[in-house]
Amino acid sequence: AIYLDYQAATPVDPRVAEAMRETMLTDFANPSSDDHALGWKAHQRVELARAAIADAFGAAWGGLIFTSGATEGNNIAILGGARNAPPERRRVLISAIEHKAVLEAASALAAEGYDIERLPVDTSGCLDLDVLEALEGTTVAVISVMAVNNETGVVQPVRAVAQWAKRHGVFFHCDATQAPLAMEVDLSSWGVDAASLSSHKIYGPKGIGVLYLADDRPWTPRPLTFGGGQEQSIRPGTLPTPLCVGFATASMLVSREGAAERERVASLRDSFVASLRDLDPGLRLTAPSGDRHPGNAHVVFSRADAADLLALLQPVVAASLGSACTSGVIGPSHVLTAMGVSDSDASRCVRFSLGRFSDAAQLAEASHAIAKALNKQRGRALPA
Ligand code: PLP
């Protein structure tokens, strides 16, 4: 199959798998066991991994909390961040295009008496900063705005949000899950108070991520779970040494090879979109302007029904209707609705996402398969 769903999950890089295999077989002791040398060694592997991840993404070594992934990081930052805010701060701001792991975490706070406000985006899928600038922030506990949207690939104005949050003393969390493959990530200079990252979006294993906490954050999120005191008691539980090492290896590779890779992938993506346009001259990008994830091709076909098209492409091409995490939900995605995309246009949207192991031959094969599927949909026989 031709895999074009990198934004849902990336394949594990063989170099990551090799590092994990070795760790799993060798450093099996509990990294919290401080009574013997095998425990010390596992602990050392975990801390070296933490240092490598911090180094790759511009964080202080002590500012990274291992989590099970970005969903958990988002939940700790939003629920825990709001719960530890001063009592007069009872509002939570999120952008209208956040991932479910942010939307649902914020919604859960409504039951605790917080007011949840969704910030609008413009038609290019970018947060409307004028609306934010006009907001009074002294009663806001937490603002959460993502770095890069997982459906459209649109890069969000994180530094501007950070400046607003600083001015108003608001805890700023950024869901940076899709950022490492889209841009250089330098968390300290972004000015965020917290950020979530996930290993399986950067060629690492599933089930691990980090929550970054800046030294100068206005307060620390309250823990959601309680246990043996690991991870500064913010996220206790035995650390999975092989997953930590896998995530670290993946982070190192992204920081070393990312710049060249982004350039290569963007150029492949652009030729792929051009080839789709040859098949469907009316095809357009959902977010034609502004900064975008280099591997993202989120397109609106002029006629095809997207769900039917993806079904016709099985098992040859793996792409998606939008976010894997909301698929199964009937109706247009909240991201497209927030951008003002009509329901009819939304039903013709497909997200193709490319990455490290994509190449021109695969994309040519994918275009060919898409041509066949489109022809089938139009009820015409394929010319030989
Ligand atoms: N946030 C964004 C923007 C995502 O794309 C994803 C991916 O599914 C998540 C959060 C959830 O991350 P995880 O699968 O690590 O829980």
Describe the structure.
It contains 12 helices and 12 strands. The protein is α/β, with parallel strands linked by helices and 384 residues long. The chain folds into 2 domains: 2-7 and 258-377, Aspartate Aminotransferase, domain 1; 14-252, Aspartate Aminotransferase, domain 2 (3-Layer(aba) Sandwich), CATH 3.40.640.10. The strands form 3 sheets. The protein has a 7-stranded mixed beta sheet with strand order 2-8-7-6-5-3-4, sandwiched between helices. Strands 9-10-12 form a 3-stranded antiparallel beta sheet. The radius of gyration is 21 Å and the shape is globular. 49% of the residues are buried. The structure holds pyridoxal-5'-phosphate. Pyridoxal-5'-phosphate is lined by residues 69-71, 99, 101, 146, 150, 175, 177-178, 198, 209, 325.
Q: What layout of secondary structure does this protein have?
A:
Layout: E1 2-3, H1 14-26, H2 37-56, E2 64-67, H3 70-83, E3 91-95, H4 100-110, E4 115-119, H5 129-133, E5 140-144, H6 158-168, E6 171-175, H7 187-190, E7 194-198, E8 209-213, H8 241-279, E9 284-285, E10 296-300, H9 306-312, E11 317-318, H10 334-338, H11 343-346, E12 349-353, H12 360-377
Parallel strand pairs: 1-11, 3-4, 3-5, 5-6, 6-7
Antiparallel strand pairs: 2-8, 7-8, 9-10, 10-12
Helix pairs in contact: 1-8, 2-8, 3-4, 8-12
Bound molecules: pyridoxal-5'-phosphate.
Helix/strand class: alpha/beta
The total count of strands amounts to: 12
Poorly predicted runs of 5 or more residues:
none
What small molecules are bound in this structure?
pyridoxal-5'-phosphate
- Taken from the alpha-carbon principal axes, the silhouette is globular
Which strand order does the major sheet show?
Answer: 2-8-7-6-5-3-4
Number of helices: 12
Question: What's the number of structural domains?
Answer: 2
